[in-house]
Structures are given as structure tokens and as C-alpha cells.
Amino acid sequence: MTREQAERLAALGPEAVVLFSLTLTRRVAELQANAPGVSTPSGMVPAYAKPPVKRRRKTPGAKDGHAGSHRKTPPRVDARVEHRLARCPCCGGGLQRCKRTRTRIVEDIPQEITPVVTEHTIHRDYCPSCKKHVEPVVPDAMPNATLGHHVVALSSWFHYGLGVTIGQTRDILGSHLHATVTAGGLLDAWGRMAAALRPWYEQIAQQLRATPLACTPTKPAGASTGRPTGSGAFAIHAAAST
Question: Which residues contact 124 (CB under 8 A, 6 or more apart)?
């Protein structure tokens, strides 16, 4: 506020000054309440509340003569499509055919992703020696499960590995599966998978606990020691101990 504006406000009387002061105090309190803290993620801080970004003094990009980098070409090509213009896109006139071509590799997810539904016929045969009926184990799913190993592993990676919510995981699976997957069904499948993998996890953890913690490599650089060394071994040992 300038001096002239303050004088004009004072000329309006004490009630106008009191009203302006209360409004200003309330606005300052709102700004302080919404001010980002030290632990506030950068994405949740408004652009106007962030400090100005310092400009880079160096020219961006690689230096002249630097080897270029690009995404590696896929090892196989599943389909080939040819593109050719019938007419000139600029004037609409006819084209004189040439033998000049170029290729462009595009990798994408198929438009139609349909699940594979398999009906397993399980034969139950009688064993005279054991005096009971026996049947083979279906290796494609856990006992009494209608979801296969691939769906359970992928959904668990979505939730526990990438932090995708259960609802979002249901939406992803529901857009490709014939039936809606419930949150309870996912949690039950993940619990079954955890119970099946827990003995293997405990075995690995026990082996890591029994492994001496090596702080320095015992062989020259580049030689294989057969076990993690240095900070890598400490991280693995600490993770197994928790």
C-alpha cells in the first residue's frame, strides 16, 4: 500500500481502518497456514511459492563430437506395415513413384489384450496301496484359486512394488479380465502368494545371516568373490536382519 492509499483509507474513518486491518490479518493467517513446510513434496508446492530457479550457465546438451545415445532397437519385429501416399498432401497432385524408403520402429502394447481362460480337467484315480483317491496338482494357479500366477504376481508388483492403490489395481485388471476382481480377492491372493514364498524367503534370510559381513573385497578389483562385498553386502545383511 502506498502513502496516498493509506491517507485515503484513514480519511474514510476508524471503521474502515479496523475492517481493513482485520481483513489483512485474516489473509496473512491463511497464507501462513498454507505455506509449504520442509517435508512438503515439491509437486504439492504451488509454482508461485517456489523460489526462482537459477539459470544454467552452461549450454545444455552434449558437447560437440559426443557419441549419440538412443533407445536400443527391439531384437525382433512382429509385424511390418507399408505406408505410401496416394496424392501429394500439399497440392493434391499425383506423385511419381520412387524407390526411396526409410524404416521406423514403433513398439507398443496390442490394442486388444484378452486373457487366456483355461479349463483344467483333473482326473481323480484310486490308489489301492494308500486306499484313497489322488489327483494331480494344477501348476498354473494356487489351490482353490481362479486367478493364475501371472495375474497375482503382476497385481502384487503394481501394489507393493509401484505403490498403485488397490482400487487402481482393480481398475487395471478389470479392463482386461472378464470378471471384476474384488479388493478382498486380491488381498487373499497376495496372502496365499506370501505364504507360499515365505519358506524360500526365510531360507535366503538365514543364509544371509550366516554369511560373514565383508567390508572390503578380498580379491583384486574386477574379480568375482562369490558374495556381495562392501556396502552392498551390508545393505543385504541389514535387510535380512529386519
Answer: 133, 134, 135
Q: Please tell me the total count of domains within the chain.
A: 2
Query: Which pLDDT tens digit goes with each residue over 147-198?
Result: 889 989 999 999 999 988 999 899 888 877 766 788 998 999 999 999 988 9
The model's pLDDT over 34-91, given as tens digits with 9 standing for 90+, comes to: 666 666 677 666 776 677 777 767 777 777 777 777 778 888 999 999 999 999 999 9
Q: Which domain holds residue 239?
A: 211-242
Q: Are residues 224 and 202 in the same domain?
A: no
Give the Cβ contact number of residue 146 at 10 Å: 12
- Tell whether 198 is covered by a domain: yes
Q: Classify residue 26: in a domain, yes or no.
A: no
Assessment of whether the complete model's pTM goes beyond 0.70: no
Residues 204 and 230 grouped into a single domain: no
What CA–CA distance (Å, rounded) separates 149 from 53?
Answer: 48
